[in-house]
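User: Quick sanity check before I run a bigger batch. Here is a single chain. Can you write out its predicted 3D structure?
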Amino acid sequence: MRGSIAAPTEKAHRPRSTLKRFLQYLEPYRKEIPIALGLVSIGAATQAIGPFLIGWSIDHLIIQGNLSGLLQMLGVLALIYLLGVQAIRGQILRVGWIMQRLLAQLRQDIFVKIQSLPLSFFDQSEAGDLMSRLLNDVSTVNQAFGQTIAQMLGNLFSIVGIVIAMLFINLQLGLLSNLVVPLMIFTTGLFARWARKRFRVTRQTIGDLSTKLEEDIGSVREAQAFNRVSLNIEEFEHLNAANRDANIQAVAITAAFLPSIDFLNTLATAGVLAYGGYLAVTGAATVGVVTAFLLYVQQFFRPIQILSQFYTQAQSAFAGLERIFLLLDEPSQLQDAIDAIEMPPMRGEVTFESVTFGYTANQRVLNSVSLHAKPGQMIALVGPTGAGKSTIINLILRFYDVTGGAVKIDGIDIRKVTQASLRRQIGIVLQDTVLFSGSVAENIAFGNPQATHVEIEAAAQVANVHEFITTLPQGYATLLGERGATLSQGQRQLISIARAVLINPRILILDEATSSIDTRTEALVQSAIARLLKGRTSFVIAHRLSTVTQADQVLVIQQGAIVEHGTHAELIAQQGVYANLYALQLGQRSDAAAITS
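Assistant: Done. Predicted structure follows.
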């Protein structure tokens, strides 16, 4: 199993820098934020003034028997709380509007980043882990911030308003009530550090679990064919248990945290009741003041409890954000040069000049490879698995940059042109055809979405697949299943050829496009390929040598070097590696060692 992106436990952002990075996404909404904060302030003010008016009413209306004044005050309180309800509703709508757009932009940034990363990144990363970052981690951020941030802002402003009101009404009781705040801050910080570590593990384990799901769901057929179902279940059970244990440990911290906050709340309430009662008995404070303070203490600690609970929940969101930002910070190693130009219309001349390449610093795959393909020539690449054939193809497409030497097309170093303009003129037909869940027409037009129906149909006719498409229930509008699962391998291959025909490439790359299909379909594919090759420079990775006997050049690749080159007839005459391999495939030799002789 390939490794995922550097695990957050190994390369974690600091919480403050993570939050700062996240808040940068608020920049486009700087005009909306003051409105939201204004609504938050109104909501907080209405909550802060309520206990003060209740306490004042006890001292000046209830005790003095002023019934009419009390009824008036009840009306005032009703209006104030109604205003508060509307303000809270407005702040939730406004903040929710901002946060959902912010999170949508975050998802968009992740997807754009994934699409723009070089293939070398995906060589070391799991698709399931990337999907987990895009879906699970963003969902965790949404749960923590997108759905509750408005309430959290309201609670925070309420605390500020309540503290001001308490200190204004009675300084001594106000200071006493706030004695537990430093303890609460310390306790929250302590539990938050513990929770953050645990939630990082939960985000990593859910990524591993997603990777396992993605792999095993996509290979159910192979698992059943090789009797691996029970082993897959066992491996999933192990990963599932790891995720379960990580979540249990995180929940255990939260479970210990909330009672601690409740205890501090009770302690503060007892302190206010005891000292406030003493002040009331001695005449230093009125009953209304003490009542107001008891109401303030309850109002004060309720948002603190909610904020504290949110704070621990936010640790999971921060762990998710760390993983997201690690991905967004992943360097795009393969970029267009600052002065890159558009690739002119190609003639199709391809040159490798002493090219060396390695996927890692310690893994050299090509060793000083030189080749020259003239426009319109068919170049066959043959050799054992791992020899470097696919690497040569990847370098022509500039999926990777060479370590040494240069790859040139029409005399232009491909590093000096934009990748888009380069690949726009190169067509690919791979052995493992990839189709998508859209319509047949959309799959054919994958490389040219602006193509008309007439152009799509013409490409299908060249690829010998038009007749088959017309037999489908909705013809070209027929929706294909995931990866074209409802089609045969040959049918998928013909659609792939039509896709290449439609973009009219000057250079064509084929990876044994006729393997794994029946004889009748192979004849259709070969005929379509013959039409596609006409007038184009082509590179064909050949596993069956009988398919490349007409190649203009056959390059025999072994251990990252071209050990033989020439036409089929010339290489047969040399009686070297190619001749031995060709004879072995024809069954004229049984010596398997001939492959490397």
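Confidence is low (pLDDT under 50) at residues 1-12, 588-597.

User: Great, the batch can go ahead then.
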